[in-house]
Amino acid sequence: MLVLVAGQALAQDIIAKQAPIDKAMRTLDTLTLRSAVEREESEFPASTLYEDWDNKYAHRATELPDSFRINLKHFCMPCKSRVVTSNFGARWGRAHKGLDIKVYIGDTIRAAFNGRVRIVNYEAAGYGKYVVIRHNNGLETIYGHMSAQLVEENQVVRAGQPIGLGGNTGRSTGSHLHFETRLCGVALNPALMFDFRNQDVVADYYVFHKDTYEREGQAANALRGVVGGGGYVASDVRGETMPGGGEVIERATRPAVAGTFTRQSAQPARFHKVSVGETLYGIARKRGCTVDELCAKNHLTKDVKVRPGQLLRY
Fold first, then answer.
1. 3-class SS at 26?
2. pTM for the complete prediction?
3. E strand or H helix that includes residue 177
4. If you placed Cys at 137, which of 5, 41, 71, 146 could pair as Cys (CB 3.0 to 4.6 Å)?
């Protein structure tokens, strides 16, 4: 009986001593796995979305997933400027696939997320001196019209790392940063993810849906204070709170004839950002409209389940 008790005590001691070792090994295994994942991401960022890696094309559209969650954590704003001078969308009879942000020649331009530089090139009739980065979260970002590039192709970069300097190269009428966000080569409105006025991302994640991203991109223009319809727009130029109310406010716009700024009044754009647990019926009651009106304005059916973060016009 004494032998049995001693044996049990000895076994318990061995187990007790082994526990910290097991915990240390699990920690080591976790760190090793994390390191391996980071190496894989740095060598082949977003490999589940992109079949190849080339340094020839700034963007080439491939098949989009039906839905894809883009992680916006651990970001860095590409520049410190809060002034958006031109919106995403139709402009001067052609599609403008990014946002133009007011920067001055020599201002630091930074990588928006961790990733790997795919292209460093010059395009006289377009982007000027530009950089394309493929990120671990699936996005590719394009930075155009720079005066200098500070990175090389295939270089691994971290969010916030300087990649270039503001400039006025290529097809440009003044110093600014042309900033694009693309998924599988398809341009998404950066305003879906980046709020330059507040120097922040709009959420921790953006959930891309192939059937709604274009409509959501149009709504984001109004929500972020960017005017549609082309031309340069100085959005909250002096950083002050302007009159008018709503998400779209009075703002200074540059007329066709260069010279002074004129005031242009706009009706408040009315959008509702869906919160967790909300339904069309609850939103309609809250906003003083009918479900039929909500469905008509947003091309929805009454039985659709709205998603948290979705923008609805009312």
1. helix
2. 0.63
3. strand 177-183
4. 71
